[in-house]
Design a protein that fits this description.
By secondary structure, this protein is of the alpha+beta class. It has one domain: Beta Polymerase, domain 2 (2-Layer Sandwich). Helices cover 29% and strands 24% of the residues. The strands form two sheets. Strands 1, 2, 3, 4, 5, 6 and 7 form a seven-stranded mixed beta sheet that branches. A two-stranded antiparallel sheet has the order 8-9. Helix 2 runs parallel beside helix 5. The chain is globular.
Length: 173
C-alpha cells in the first residue's frame, strides 16, 4: 500500500451517504466504481471519484466544506474536474457534466467531445454493503483507452473483463 492518501470502503460509503442525504445525485467512478461492481475492495484507493451533474457542483462544495474539504489544485483542475481534500487523508475527485437532449452527460466544453453516455450511468454496485450508483463496467473499460496503462489500470480492466465477459482491450503501452 502507498504512503499517500487512503480511502477505505467505509470512508467511500460514508461520503456517498453524505452526498445522497444532501440531495446530490452522484455516480461512483474510477477505482471505487470498479470495486463497487466487483462487490468488494480489490486494491487501495487514494480518493473517491464521483460523476455528477454540473448543477450540483456548488452544493457538493458546500456540503464537503462543512466537513473540512477544500480544493486541492492540480495541473488539470477545471470547473468540471477538481479535487477536494479534507487535509486528513480523504479526497473526492469530482467530474461534472451537463445532460444534453439525448440524455448523455457532456463532460467539459462540448467542443472537446467528452461524454458520460447515458448507458455509462447505469451501473449499480456495492461499497461496504451499500448499493451505489456507478459507471457501468463496459464504460469503465472503454474509459481506459487512449493512454498508457498503469499497474492499477491493468488490474481494474482485467478484473472487469473477466467478471462481466467483456473483451479485454489492448493496453496502451
Amino acid at each position: 500500500m502507498s504512503d499517500g492518501p487512503h480511502m477505505s470502503a467505509q470512508d467511500a460509503r460514508r461520503l456517498y451517504d453524505l452526498l445522497e442525504r444532501a440531495g446530490i445525485d452522484v455516480w461512483i467512478d474510477g477505482g471505487w466504481a470498479v470495486d463497487a461492481l466487483l462487490g468488494e475492495p480489490t486494491r487501495p484507493h487514494a480518493d473517491l471519484d464521483v460523476a455528477l451533474e454540473t448543477r450540483w457542483v456548488e452544493r457538493l462544495r458546500e456540503v464537503l466544506a462543512e466537513r473540512g474539504f477544500r480544493e486541492s489544485p492540480r495541473d488539470d483542475s477545471s470547473a468540471w474536474n477538481f479535487v477536494l481534500d479534507d487535509g486528513a487523508g480523504l479526497q473526492v475527485d469530482a467530474h461534472a457534466f451537463t445532460f444534453d437532449e439525448h440524455g448523455d452527460g457532456v463532460y467539459g466544453p462540448p467542443e472537446n467531445g467528452d461524454y458520460y453516455r447515458a448507458d455509462a450511468l447505469t451501473g449499480v454496485g456495492v461499497i461496504d454493503g451499500r448499493r451505489v450508483r456507478c459507471i457501468s463496467a463496459a464504460w469503465l473499460v472503454r474509459f481506459h483507452s487512449g493512454y498508457r496503462w498503469t499497474e492499477k489500470d491493468v488490474h481494474d480492466v482485467t478484473a472487469l473483463c473477466e467478471r462481466f465477459g467483456i473483451e479485454l482491450p489492448e493496453a496502451s503501452c
